[in-house]
């Protein structure tokens, strides 16, 4: 079997939309909104990644996101609420492993937009894009087991628990557990 991801998606950024949301490329001017997310303690509580301290931290993330798109190792979208045009969060296939047609996802919303079904709406569109346009074979999500909102979201979308790693990740002076979830196209049927 010959299976390859579709690198044509890297020729022109795929702007997408759903009923209430628009998914577009990051712009440098999104740094302030990204900072509001990545410096917020409620958002960062289970993210096990460094909290942004300055706007430059967010600007660096935007540059690195643009770099991964250029070198075809990731594709990340800003999530815009279409009724207000506000940047409310992001979703990314932030690490694409070409030879295995596998991609790892990451996502977050500003807390004032939680609980409205926005991330389920996002995942439905971007999972469809992942299998049908990017043509990956499996999608991976790495979650802190205490992150109930994210665990619930992934299970609702039929992601399967693949592994539970005990204290495998050292962050902020502590070893924390991780759950690896994955989704295959056949899980959607
Ligand atoms: C995890 C996170 C992305 C969830 O976002 P969210 O938009 O609140 O998630 P959902 O789309 O599942 O919506 C949550 C609830 O909104 C409710 N809801 C309200 N209006 C809705 C609508 N119109 N349609 C669907 N659901 C709606 C649903 O009841 C849903 O609850 P349920 O799961 O019990 O059905 C968000 O909490 C977040 O940004 N957390 C911090 C960052 C983080 O942890 N990222 C993940 C790292 S692995």
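^ structure tokens above, recovered residues below v
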């Amino acid at each position: 079997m010959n299976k390859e991801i579709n690198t044509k998606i890297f020729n022109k950024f795929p702007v997408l939309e759903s009923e209430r949301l628009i998914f577009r490329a990051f712009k440098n001017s999104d740094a302030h909104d990204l900072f509001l997310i990545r410096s917020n303690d409620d958002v960062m509580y289970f993210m096990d990644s460094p909290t942004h301290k300055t706007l430059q931290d967010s600007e660096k993330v935007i540059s690195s996101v643009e770099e991964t798109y250029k070198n075809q190792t990731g594709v990340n979208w800003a999530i815009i609420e279409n009724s207000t045009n506000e940047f409310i969060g992001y979703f990314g296939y932030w690490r694409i492993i070409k030879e295995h047609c596998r991609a790892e996802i990451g996502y977050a919303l500003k807390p004032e937009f939680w609980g409205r079904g926005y991330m389920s709406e996002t995942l439905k569109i971007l999972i469809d894009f992942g299998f049908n346009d990017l043509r990956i074979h499996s999608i991976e999500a790495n979650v802190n087991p205490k992150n109930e909102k994210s665990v619930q979201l992934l299970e609702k979308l039929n992601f399967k628990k693949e592994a539970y790693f005990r204290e495998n990740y050292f962050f902020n002076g502590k070893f924390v557990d991780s759950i690896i979830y994955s989704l295959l196209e056949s899980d959607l049927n």
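The pocket of coenzyme A is lined by residues 43, 46-47, 107-109, 114-120, 143, 147, 149-150, 152-153, 156 (CB under 6 Å).
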